[in-house]
Every structure is written in structure tokens, then in C-alpha cells.
Amino acid sequence: MLPLTGLKVLELGHYIAAPFATRLLADLGATVVKVEPPEGDPQRGWGSKHNGHSVWFSVHGRNKLSVTLDLKSAEGREKALRLAAWADALVENFRPGQLERLGLGPERLHEANPRLVIARVSGYGQDGPYRDRPAFGAIGEAMGGLRHLTAHPGQTDLPPPRCGISISDDLAGMYAAMAVVSACWGRDRAGAEGKGTVIDVDLVSSVFSLMEGMLPEYGLFGWVRQPAGAAIPTAAPTNTYPCADGKWLCVAGNSDLIFRRLMAAIGRPELAEDPRFATNADRCANVAELDAAIAAWTRGRTAAEAEAALQRAEVPCSRLYDIRDCAEDPHFRARELVMEVEDPLLGTVLHPAPPFRFQGVPPRAMVRWPGPAAGQHNAAVFGEMLGEGGPGRRSG
Q1: CA-to-CA distance for 362 and 215, rounded, in angstroms?
Q2: 169 counts as catalytic
Q3: CATH (residue range 8-209+333-385)
Q4: How many CB atoms lie within 10 A of CB 288?
Q5: Phi and psi of 345, rounded to 5°?
Q6: CA gap 118, 91 in Å, rounded
Q7: Which residues of 91-120 are buried (b: 16+ CB within 10 A; e: fewer)?
């Protein structure tokens, strides 16, 4: 039922970026074999644990087959090459040059399988003067331009905060997954003559790709966009406002019609008739007065009360949800964005649904099993898929 059913993917990844890419591919139906070191993926040691097992890995490893290999050994490398010969695509996120040092560089992999698509995810890319520098997600945010923008305007005593998740790893993983599907489609469109290729994705350029119109603005006018806090400098009123219960309400009232509805809802209809606020450009130029009026109204109500009032007026708004709000919200539950999954290692756990829908495929059908134990599928993969040894034999 899933669109990537039949696509075979080998993951030589750890931590976040490559495993996130292959999780997306697995959610879409691909058969993903995740190669872990004998001690397991380092991410199994991150976050909270239950019954001695990683809670995070239940999601990060879902829909994947886990095998263990020591890639520093000749036997482990040989098995990896056999898996590469089986696969349509390989996704890895070692530091540049590490695959080559293991004897598993693209040339060797393409000797084993000329049609193999190889996606390489790294901090700075496979070339350039910074290729050999170590990097994690925070470095992608910093160098890609995002962290500069997350500061509060005028605040100099605290560093600009990260967004709370490993956004650059996730972005690179999404781009890698998109590139893998594209490259496989292009290869297969060429028929039997189609060859594999090498894809180069990095954390810095993944974040940099989100910088909207900032680069042409700098090139033409020398403009450098500065932090804007919760506001949007080019749309007003759009901001996040304090409420009586200490929570916050995000409001997007920037179109002319919505602005009128917003002003009526907060009891200030006269502002909608004021020529200083006639257009979005006018409102941006005089936004401080509008923000003050909206904040005065929200401060007299809880976030839920203010949200309900503006929703009745058809003004786009939302409380700032934490994970409890997401898990308990009826919309999340009705669309199965939050689903209960039975995990043999953990019991009943909550999983986020895949972020895409296909007609006739219920979201629950896309989560076929949670993250397995390290090496759980050694026998199935090496014994049955690759025809090595008999049933039950463990390799590693």
C-alpha cells in the first residue's frame, strides 16, 4: 500500500541525520537495513530509558531492520558490501573520508553495485576548506544563519537560543531522503543502463537553504536581516502575546480582512478604520501600537479563553503548545498524529505519525513496528535475505 514498497535502503548512519532520512524512507514503505556497531547505535544511549531500553529509539529506529557489524573488521566490511550489492540506495553520515578509510568508499561500493545511489550527509560537505571539521546540529544552525535570527531584538546578555530540536540534522535528513528518491527515479527511468550516483548533503547548507530572500537582499542592497523575536517584520500584526495565566498566544492577523475581524474581536474596531493601519505596509510601520492593543486584551484572559474568542472571529491563532498539549489535543488524536504503538521492549508508547498522508492508507499502517533491539534482524537479513548460513545464525 505504501509508495516506496520494494525500495531497498542500507543505512550506515548514527545519531540523527542519516537515521532520520531512512526513517522517512521506511515510513514510506522502503525496506531499510540499519547497520549498527556491535554495541548498538550511540543514539540508544540518548534520552530517557524504560526497562533498560531507549525510549527515543522506539521512534528513530521504527520500521527498520537492525543488524550489527564491525565495519573495522574484514568480515564486517565484506558483509556491508554484500548488503550494498542488495540495496538500491545507501545513506551514511560519517565524517568525510571515513567510508574511504574503511575501504567502503563510493568507488568500492559501485564495484559491488553500479546502480547504487549513495547519499552522504556531513557537517560541511564532501569538499571545501571546512570538509574535515567536526560538526553537530548546533554548528549547522550557527553557520547556516539560523541561530543569528533566533535572538530577541536588543538582547545582548543571553545567547540566541536553539529552537529546541536538532533542526539542522532533521533538515539534512529530509533533503537526503528527497534526493535518494529523486536519484532512484532518475536511475530507473534510464532502464537497465541507469547508474548509481553520489549525493552530497550537509548540515550547513541545509539550514542555509531556508534563509528565504536574505541572500539576494544582501547582494543587491547590503541588507543583513536582524532578529525580530516573535514578530514578522513584513507582516502585521503577527506576533505572540502574553496571557493572564502566564502562557502565550500566537496571532496572525495580517491580511486586511482578518485585521478587521481581529480589531472587532478585541473591542478596538476604530483601529481598523484608522488610515495609519489601512494596509499591511502601514501596519508594519506602526506595529508597536497594534501589538500594545492586542497584548492589553490578551493579558486580561487566559490563553485558552483568548484563543477561543479569536477562533470564533476566524482569526488565525494558537496557544503555544507543549508536548502535553499535542498529545492530548483532539485534532492530533482524530488525525492519528499521535498514536499508541505496542513496543516489545517498552510496552505501549506514543509515536508521532509520519507527516504525509496517502489516499487509502491509514496513518497507523505506516508504523509497522517500533525501533528493534540492536542486531535483532541479523538472522533474517544475513541468513534469509543474503542466504548466509542457516536460520538463527547471528552475525556481527
Answers
A1: 41
A2: yes
A3: 3.40.50.10540
A4: 9
A5: -90, -25
A6: 6
A7: bbbbebebbeebebebebbbebbebbbbbb
Q: Where are the domains of the chain?
A: 8-209+333-385, 238-242+248-319
Burial class (CB in 10 A: 0-12, 13-18, 19+), 191: exposed
Q: Write down the residue that cell numbers 561500493 correspond to.
A: 109
Instruction: Name the one residue in this structure whose C-alpha cell is 481581529.
Output: 262
Q: What is the 8-class DSSP label of residue 36?
A: E
pLDDT tens series, the chain, 396 aa:
899 999 999 999 888 999 999 999 999 999 999 999 999 999 999 889 999 999 999 999 999 999 999 999 999 999 999 999 999 999 999 999 999 999 999 999 999 999 999 999 999 999 999 999 999 999 999 999 999 999 999 888 899 999 899 999 999 999 999 999 999 999 999 999 999 999 999 999 999 999 999 999 999 999 999 999 999 999 999 999 999 999 999 999 989 999 999 999 999 999 999 999 999 999 999 999 999 999 999 999 999 999 999 999 999 999 999 999 999 999 999 999 999 999 999 999 999 999 999 999 999 999 999 999 999 999 999 998 888 753 333 333
State the catalytic residue, choosing from 169, 202, 291, 343.
Answer: 169
pTM of the model: 0.94
Q: What is the fold of 238-242+248-319?
A: formyl-coa transferase, domain 3 (3.30.1540)
For residues 56 and 49, give the distance between their C-alpha atoms in angstroms, rounded to a whole number: 8
- On the 0-12 / 13-18 / 19+ scale of CB atoms within 10 A, 52 is exposed
